[in-house]
Records
---
Amino acid sequence: MLVVANWKMNPIELADARKLFSGIKKHVRNLKNTDAVICPPFPYIEPLVSTYRGKKVDFGAQDVYWEREGSKTGEVSAPMLRDIGAKYVIVGHSERRALGESDEEIAQKVQASLRSNLIPILCFGERKHDSEGAFLEVISKQLKTCLKDVSEKDIRNVVLAYEPIWAIGGGADNAMTPHEIHQMTLFIRKVLRELYDESASQKVRILYGGSVESTNSEALAKDAHVDGFLVGHASLNATHFGNILETVEKQK
Ligand code: PGA
């Protein structure tokens, strides 16, 4: 199981980021079956990586640009992230899509990450969950476009994070039910099967994100049939995030 903390644009000061991380570190010592990944804002990645002596946590960024270097003011490239010790990168988060990022651009970000040996955590999910099932078409199109250049060999190194936009940022009541998430993972694997062979499609890790909290993580870990979670607001509290890690660890 893989549990990813998406700190988004928090906390405001490096000192608080260090404090949050030391709180989280206390909960990772006994993890055996669970990989923990922390995705802080860009300026905190290197300070946290360079002072961490343990092996239980990996680090990731929250975005990446698809070119290696050059005149791209404000952008950060995959080789730069790799060089400072990031292993993962979130791409296509709905909060970036809301700023205008397209599936085509996300496809380039996925490719650029793989070229630099970064594991892309590809986010996708519908804005509205209509009862006619039109959202399934949205998800299928997002996946097919974002993965269009990913080979059968490389797809194993991509992590998928299904995050229905309507479920993000609320309380635990906002999250999808374990049963609904399970149905979605079956659908996602069916889409993968249209693109890749059976073995590759089964190996891809599928995470769920959207109001995962310490109060619902046990039920989700037990019954949602996912390979882990992408956790937003609950990852800003070391005790809550630690509880999520511990419940996930217990399920396996
Ligand atoms: P949330 O955010 O856990 O606060 O809903 C998840 C995300 O946006 O990645």
---
Amino acid sequence: MANRIAIYPGSFDPVTLGHVNIIERSLNMFDHLIVAVAVNSSKQTVLSVKERLDLLEQILGSNNRVSVDSFTDRLLIDYAKSKNAAVIVRGLRTVSDYEYEFQMAHANRKLDPQIDTVFMMTESHYSHLSSTLIKEIVRYGGSCEEMLDPSVEKVLKAKLQKS
Ligand code: ADP
């Protein structure tokens, strides 16, 4: 059987341990996982694309079954096709995640029925965890223990606690 390549797209602003958990579990299902930073040039982020890619590399770099990449202002489905990926991986935490993901998965199937979306349910202790929440916690000096890799916490603190 051909190598099963999957793509895990997201903003990763920043990558959290909730994301890392989805990545590790995806590797039990697929031969190769491309973690892809989806860049939308009209969307504001705290971390630059390079910072997000560097942090992902630092955390995941030692595993040769994972690669880190980005794509800008492009349909995910076209990017997936260009990488020969047959599967898109997404994580689910809440009912509101589900509603959004349901819509996206249907749209993507319509655009290319050869590519499937696989959903992975969050580990319960990461179900409250989002990049948005993390940024609030770090900005106001809260503890991110068990939410972020220390390298991510350091970079985020330097960015958000400047003043
Ligand atoms: P996006 O802007 O595409 O939603 P995110 O970086 O916020 O990008 O998330 C990427 C994917 O990871 C999404 O499918 C999201 O639902 C999932 N995800 C984010 N945080 C968690 C978590 N704590 N547990 C499981 N899945 C998560």
